């Protein structure tokens, strides 16, 4: 592709308006995630506890902005002032849980629809990460770590509110902590936040901003579709294992076990000789 045409495409991606189509895709996947988390009891729960079902879904949809606002000392409920977005989220929630013959859920789960919605969701995620980094940079111009944290949370806020979201539905799962087992989306949002901060605050990125942004969008969309079609859920895992083995004691723990076993075997040999 011609470099100018590629740059023009990148600029078009940056200028995409998220409302309403990308918000619909985001809300659809959020509602599907809540329903799948409920399991086989989803329909019965939605009929018996519609308020809890709605609240948990809205929390997933607006989680990134809510958590970021809480950390930045801003009104936590401010994201709900966007009435059109709230109405879109509510309409999608109703479609997934309450349409006749469960047709809304079946349409959402239909593979072509899910693929398109997932691709749109990743474009939406990149936008949220960038907005989070930009907003934090205005409040704390020299605090890179705050920019990275806010960008990461904006990108995958649902992961950090899973404990509360389940608690609203009456399920207490204290081990569901994103800090203990971060998902691919948290790791990807973290990486995207770091790249956006470096692009914004340093001269290390020689490429135009539009290309950097477009590159992150391609990365997110590619691995999201790969997870659906090919089952590649976490491409970071091999690098994490290698990094932990080198820098977080993995190699030394393995050596200690090997040496410890050798000492045990030597001791057993000496005891055997004594017994003879």
TrEMBL record:
The chain crosses the membrane at residues 51-72, 84-101, 139-159, 179-198, 210-230. GO terms for molecular function: identical protein binding; potassium channel activity. GO terms for cellular component: endomembrane system; membrane. Keywords: Ion channel, Ion transport, Membrane, Potassium, Potassium channel, Potassium transport, Transmembrane, Transmembrane helix, Transport. It is found in: Endomembrane system. InterPro entries: TRIC_channel. The keyword Transmembrane applies. Pfam families: TRIC. It comes from the Eukaryota. It is a multi-pass membrane protein. Belongs to the TMEM38 family. This is Trimeric intracellular cation channel type 1B.1. It comes from Glossina fuscipes.
């Amino acid at each position: 592709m011609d470099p100018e045409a590629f740059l023009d495409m990148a600029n078009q991606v940056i200028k995409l308006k998220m409302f309403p189509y990308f918000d619909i895709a985001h809300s659809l996947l959020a509602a599907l995630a809540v329903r799948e988390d409920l399991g086989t009891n989803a329909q019965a729960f939605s009929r018996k506890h519609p308020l809890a079902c709605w609240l948990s879904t809205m929390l997933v949809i607006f989680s990134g902005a809510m958590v970021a606002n809480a950390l930045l000392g801003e009104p936590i409920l401010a994201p709900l002032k966007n009435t059109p977005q709230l109405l879109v989220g509510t309409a999608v929630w109703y479609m997934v849980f309450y349409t006749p013959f469960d047709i809304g859920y079946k349409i959402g789960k239909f593979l072509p629809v899910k693929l398109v919605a997932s691709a749109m969701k990743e474009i939406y995620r990149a936008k949220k990460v960038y907005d989070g980094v930009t907003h934090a940079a205005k409040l704390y111009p020299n605090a890179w770590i705050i920019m990275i944290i806010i960008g990461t949370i904006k990108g995958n806020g649902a992961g950090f509110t899973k404990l509360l979201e389940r608690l609203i539905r009456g399920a207490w799962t204290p081990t569901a902590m994103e800090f203990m087992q971060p998902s691919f989306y948290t790791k990807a949002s973290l990486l995207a936040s770091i790249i956006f901060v470096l692009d914004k605050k340093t001269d290390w990125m020689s490429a135009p901003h539009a290309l950097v942004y477009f590159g992150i969008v391609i990365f997110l969309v590619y691995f999201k579709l790969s997870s659906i079609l090919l089952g590649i859920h976490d491409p970071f895992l091999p690098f994490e294992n290698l990094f932990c083995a080198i820098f977080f004691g993995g190699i030394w723990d393995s050596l200690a076990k090997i040496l410890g076993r050798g000492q045990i075997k030597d001791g057993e040999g000496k005891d055997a000789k004594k017994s003879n």
